[in-house]
Design a protein that fits this description.
Layout lengths: L1 E4 L2 E4 L4 E7 L7 E8 L6 E7 L4 E3 L7 E6 L4 E6 L8 E9 L5 E3 L3 E6 L1
Parallel strand pairs: 2-11
Antiparallel strand pairs: 1-3, 3-8, 4-5, 4-9, 5-6, 7-8, 9-10, 9-11
């Protein structure tokens, strides 16, 4: 299971940190990260981190968002700084384990950035 939390309402320029904790799944080689979907828009990959530690970011969040992990806690974090109203969306964490067909999803967490 993936348990996500950390969303909320923040003013433009503010910060939030999302977390996604994994339980009951053996982690070996994997990709874990966050997608987001705003009303009327396509789902967008925001950031991901691999089991090897490499990271990828959407161009729209580079320099503002940082994805990290705590292996001891099986938790991935998304630090979101300098938030903009266009960052408003439901954020979903996901986990893809290499060799496993299915993708694991956490529940969505709403991030609302007011102008």
């Amino acid at each position: 299971q993936l348990q996500a939390c950390g969303g909320g309402l923040v003013q433009a320029g503010g910060s939030l940190r999302l977390s996604c904790a994994v339980s009951g799944i053996t982690l070996s080689r994997y990709f874990m990260g966050w997608y987001r979907q705003a009303p009327g828009k396509q789902r967008e990959l925001v950031a991901r981190i691999s089991s090897g530690g490499s990271t990828d970011y959407a161009d729209s969040v580079k320099g503002r968002f940082t994805i990290s992990r705590d292996n001891a806690k099986n938790t991935v974090y998304l630090q979101m700084n300098t938030l903009k109203p266009e960052d408003t969306a439901v954020y979903h964490c996901y986990l893809r384990v290499v060799g496993v067909v299915n993708t694991y999803w956490g529940q969505g967490t709403l991030v609302t950035v007011s102008s």
